[in-house]
Amino acid sequence: MLSLSIDQQVQQWRLLLAQFPASLAVRLQELIERHQAELAGYFYERMLADEAASQFLSHDEVKLRLDSALQRWLRMLFSASLTNDLQPLVGLQKQVGEIHARIGVPVHLVLQGAGCLKRRFYALLEDEGWSDADRLLAQRMFVELIDHAMEIISRAYASSHDRNARNEEAYRLFSVAQNVGAEKERQRAALLDWENQLMFDLAMGLESQQLPRLGASEFGLWFRHKGSYAFQGTTEVNQILESMERIDNVLLPMFGGREVDAETRMQRLRDLREQAKSVVFHLDTLFEQVNELESGRDVLTRMLNRKFLPVVMAKEVAYSRKSGRPFAVLAIDIDHFKMINDTHGHEAGDLVLQQVALLLSNHSRGGDYVFRLGGEEFLMLLVDISASGAVGVADKLRRQVEKEVFRLPREQSLQLTISVGVAGHDGHPDYQNLLRAADEALYRAKHGGRNRVELA
What pLDDT sits at residue 13? Predict the structure, then answer.
């Protein structure tokens, strides 16, 4: 799709408006302002009745904001002819398109919503008592303005969607491809740790509900949130997921409870062992399919950089909405970092950043993510955790940093603190809401005295 500049889009809008008399534009604007609530209500009612659309609209915050946002959009759209400054209007359409792409709303649903507005407008116009000529001209102006807005929205949607798709594919390859050998050994070791813990707990005679589930283990978290995504589309991923499901929900519940004979118990153990071996075998096969890939990693700290933040956030929002499992983000800022650079030099500042990044990485689980957003700012995404649990993790990190001795050049050292903003995902489909909430909580932590954790 041909890309147009803002100026070109503004000029197209002016040419469209020039086709209609100013008096008609005024009457149309007055009609829209009188009926904006009714138009928005009809739109919302019809779209909620659509199963595909309702999954994006049913969230409480979306319901709360969408009505007023749609009314504002209609007012701006039909007051355009009364102002010379059309850039904000064009900018709004681009923003709408980008948000829909970010959330993953199919573009056909956006166009379907526009159709709802047109149909309701036609019905309203019948009750206004306009002449046939004026009514037909008003219908044409309404349709052309809506369609022109949809064209700009669709262009922005397509551009943003393509960019996200490229980043998603790059991240899919990147997510486990860097340092394949080390990741392979790490995950094999995590599997062995789970198996050893399971055998010990079985020997101790624990009840089935007390036995460690593979899906909740270090390996399970990594595979569900990273490995399965990196290798998506392969038969091995499905086989590993099926084995994990069988182990956790079929085999482990058979242990404990009523006594069984030795032969039955041994057969269950063999079945369990075969499923675990199957996971290892398919995991090895997956790792043999990838090569080294380093793009997307921050050069200084080796953490993920901003490039893959939209991909990871969108993926975790989709996973959370589908599975019902919570997740949270920590916005982390090193306190008084500028003073470190000013006092000890940028070399010392770089060493501090590297040490903080290593500390954050060492205190994250296999399924978690650590990003360096730039400067002294980091972001951690914690999977399968509630907001209150994330606060506990954040405070543990804060205390760990506070007691750490950071090494500087020329055998110098210092101690520092961090401030953390915590936000738990509340089901909203747009991950930007979660990031904004974490940033606002971080702002409160910084302005509340630093070296503290605030929950959004």
Answer: 87
